[in-house]
Amino acid sequence: MDSFGDPNQQEGSLTSADLESGEQGPVNGPVMLNESVCSMVLQILVPFLLAGLGTVMAGMLLDIVQHWIVFQKVTEIFILVPALLGLKGNLEMTLASRLSTAVNVGRMNSPREKWNMVIGNLALKQVQATVLGFLAALAASVLGWILDRKLTLNYAALLCCSSVVTAFTSSLFQGIIMVGVIIGSKRAGINPDNIATPIAASVGDLITLGLLAVISKVFFYSIDVSPYIVYVVCVLFLCLTPVWVIISFRHPESRRLLYGGWEPIITSMVISSLGGLILDRAMTDPKLMGAGIYTPVINGIGGNLVAIQSSRIATYLHFHCSLRELPEHAKGWYFPTRTFCGRGPNSRTSQVLLLLVIPGHVTFLYIIYLMQGGHTSPTAIFISLYLAAAFTQVFLLLCIGDWMVHCLWRCGRDPDSFSIPYLTALGDLLGTGLLALCFRLLGFFSDEDNQLGD
User: Fold this and answer.
1) Which pLDDT score is estimated for 359?
2) pTM for this model (two decimals)
């Protein structure tokens, strides 16, 4: 196969030669075709709860660090939060989806092929993380300057350095975890589509937010003593990029993503930054400050659920259809009823994922209440508004995800590499916007605030 082939033919996808020859994976088919509803629910439920607990802890952490002096002085860091937390959708979940598809279609059976794919993907991820971290910081600096016109050069350097170091470190650590999960699930006979993306979400938010808070705090205090440190560290991490490029360039499949894989992750970073702009305004508004603890939760759960569905649909298309060809049930005009009541094999998955929203969020709200987190009492009005926002977000994401994955496939683009970044970024924007609206409506209904938490 020519290593300089179509850049839209990504890792984990079947080549045209494979499809023509009928080499579509293991003889017994992917794991997802043989699983029962009970098995699917159990495989999704445990990682879903772990992911939810991870987002709750991230929300508690954000509720604490928002009072740190670095967050008070350099409020543009709040714009960075959704963009950097969105890296798990741009990079970790996308990696998980690609490798899950590769496992299900039988492309990781050979040890040599498996490790070539792993090394190439990890090196590529470090390139993407460094570039995205730098671009996210530039976007936050520009948006902050447009709104407030007071961002200094040293603070802009602080944003860039903190963002690049956080993105690089978090991406490397989570990438290694994802590879272990994919390989382990393959050996255990578990469908990685059901567990890989939720596990990525369970650790991603907490690790990334914790690193961002600590790193930005350290660099903030170093500016007064040695301001050149942030510049040197930022340049050092940027200079490592060519090393990762060379490593990923040695593997044909990751080489293709170096050419054609930037559009979705950069676009999704911009979308997440718009969600960060909403968060920045919310965290500086006393009436909306209580939204901070719930932002990682609603964004993380929504992105987690739609990533599962996107990964499963992509695996089905890889296994049953040639690129640019759709199955019969997906042809014609799209209607939301197709997602939840259609004849396709993933309709029942959509129903299960949507049914998890309300009990899942109720559980996480109760955990936040037990931990005395947040600034808003769990009154009936607040819980109703919050659950309505969460349900609306996931309903829209599942519909958009179903439509988007099939459109990408029909256009000749691998949804494993293109859909999840867009969907998780939209989840961040929808979740943050609906949550801000929820808190605005609380004031409209004159809901009392008992100030749970400090």
Assistant:
1) 92
2) 0.73
